[in-house]
Specification:
Strands 1-2-4-3-5-6-7-8 form an eight-stranded mixed beta sheet. It has one domain (8-274): Rossmann fold. The chain has helices at 8-14, 26-42, 92-97, 115-131, 133-136, 150-168, 186-189, 201-206, 230-245, 267-270; strands spanning 46-50, 58-62, 69-75, 101-105, 138-148, 173-179, 219-225, 249-255. The protein is built from ten helices and eight strands. It is globular, with a radius of gyration of 17 Å. The relative contact order is 0.15. By secondary structure, it is α/β, with parallel strands linked by helices. Strand 3 (69-75), helix 3 and strand 4 (101-105) form a beta-alpha-beta unit. The chain is 36% helix and 20% strand.
């Protein structure tokens, strides 16, 4: 028994969302790619804007139709070792129609970076956006930060560790949307998915959002798919409850009929005006 009474086999299944869809991710990855390519063909976009020195430290920016719009920033998932901003633009059309600008972040993946470095890179991307708000034409006082799966973890840790730095830079994150995320890294450290991550006990403690709650500030929307695994649902519910007890404005939403890989393909998941 490794974690919460699970055997190794059970743990691997609980933290493998693909087991809920028969194991084949390829149709969803193809949809991400196709929808993102369609968004880039239909809307203005500034691609691969560098927020750091590494080729991986880039973001894509879709401006709203008018100046001074709020900005929605998205951090992609992929278990900290897959995907990029290139497959993560499917939200752009709905957000632009709702008069929001949209930025999707890239970051260095494992094994080339540790999770702590990924958190720092995404923070640096936000700080870069703050410095470029006038040039890019969005309102830095109206920011939504969202993330899916591993991206939800990174978003939660950015708020837990960098709220002061972001505020000092003039960036006000009003809403945080966490979608089917991981908030306790302990089970990840016990699985095969940890092979490229190589999480240490110190990292498990210091980089788990559920053990490092932020000060009250933004509104939190913790959402998870009804057809996610029971452990993904439990982690989301537990994190939302911890936030509530710590004095945060937080809602928990179980998305009916959705699963881990299609939840970000529905605008109701991430569109602020639908809330």
């Amino acid at each position: 028994m490794l974690y919460r009474g699970f055997s190794q086999t059970e743990l691997e299944q609980e933290y493998s969302p693909s087991t809920m869809i028969g194991g084949d991710l390829s149709p969803y990855l193809a949809s991400y790619q196709a929808l993102s390519a369609q968004a880039r063909s239909e809307f203005p976009v500034q691609e691969k804007l560098a927020y750091g020195d590494s080729p991986n430290q880039v973001l894509d920016y879709f401006p709203a139709k008018g100046a001074g719009a709020p900005l929605h920033v998205f951090i992609h998932g992929g278990y900290w070792q897959a995907l990029s901003q290139r497959e993560s633009a499917m939200m752009a059309p709905a957000l632009i129609e709702a008069e929001h600008s949209f930025a999707t972040l890239n970051y260095t993946l494992a094994p080339d970076a540790r999770i702590g470095e990924m958190i720092e890179e995404c923070r640096d991307a936000l700080l870069w956006l703050a410095a470029q708000a006038g040039t890019l034409g969005f309102d830095p006082s109206r920011i939504t930060l969202s993330g899916h799966s591993a991206g939800a973890h990174l978003a939660a840790m950015i708020i837990a560790t960098s709220s002061d730095a972001l505020a000092k830079a003039g960036l006000r994150i009003r809403d945080v949307i966490l979608i089917s995320g991981i908030y306790d890294l302990e089970p990840i450290s016990l699985m095969s998915v940890n092979d490229p991550l190589q999480l240490t006990p110190v990292e498990v403690n210091d980089l788990s959002p559920i053990r490092n709650l932020p000060r009250p500030g933004p509104r939190y929307y913790v959402t998870v798919a009804e057809r996610d695994t029971p452990e993904f649902i439990r982690q989301s519910r537990d994190y939302a409850e911890r936030l509530r007890k710590a004095g945060h404005s937080v809602s928990f939403d179980l998305k009916k009929g959705m699963q881990h890989f299609d939840i970000i393909m529905h605008s109701e998941t991430f569109l602020p005006t639908s809330r």
